[in-house]
Design brief:
By secondary structure, the chain is an alpha+beta fold. A hairpin with a 2-residue loop joins strand 4 and strand 5. It contains 4 helices and 5 strands, in the order ααβββαββα. It folds into 2 domains: 68 residues, Helix Hairpins, CATH 1.10.287; 87 residues, Transcription elongation factor, GreA/GreB, C-terminal domain (Chitinase A, domain 3), CATH 3.10.50. It has a 5-stranded mixed sheet with strand order 3-2-1-5-4. The chain is 46% helix and 21% strand.
Length: 160
């Protein structure tokens, strides 16, 4: 899980760095060659994109720093946490749902990812297999029972 996220960040950094150092300077140079910069939409667009790319690279650098601070050895092996794969029975709706707890900016809803910062993610954090939690959602409360749990430390130990 951590390696997958780091790889995605690294790939995005590579693409954005190339755009910032190669493609955007070309666009800016072409726009400058067109003359009057006060009313040059291409120039303004390229500068705005340049600012966005720089901000995004800063954000990604912070995310990589945050990820490097995660010590899997310090994570509890018996509680829901970052990277956990958890199966819950939604007692309110009487259905079973599988989730993987992830950081918000790397969610894939189709893959069953749920953000740690979401109401359900927050409600599940720290829960053990067999426990029942109550989650407050905009549509009302839901009771969730943790029926299966595979934590990130367990996943990494299984891969070794």
């Amino acid at each position: 899980m951590l390696d997958e996220i780091k790889s995605k960040i690294s790939d995005e950094v590579d693409v954005l760095t190339r755009e910032l150092n190669v493609e955007l300077p070309r666009r800016i140079q072409k726009a400058v060659e067109l003359g009057d910069l006060r009313e040059n939409a291409e120039y303004k667009s390229a500068l705005e994109r340049q600012q966005f790319v720089q901000a995004r690279l800063g954000h990604l650098a912070r995310r990589m720093s945050d990820l490097s601070k995660i010590n899997v050895d310090d994570m509890p092996a018996d509680r829901v946490g970052f990277g956990s794969k958890v199966t819950v029975r939604d007692m309110t709706r009487n259905r079973v749902v599988d989730y993987t707890i992830v950081a918000g900016d790397y969610m894939n809803l189709e893959a069953g990812h749920i953000s740690m910062a979401s109401p359900i993610g927050k409600g599940l954090m720290g829960a053990r297999k067999g426990e029942e939690v109550t989650v407050r959602l905009p549509g009302g409360e839901r009771r969730l029972a943790v029926t299966e749990l595979t934590t990130l430390p367990e996943q990494l130990n299984a891969d070794e």
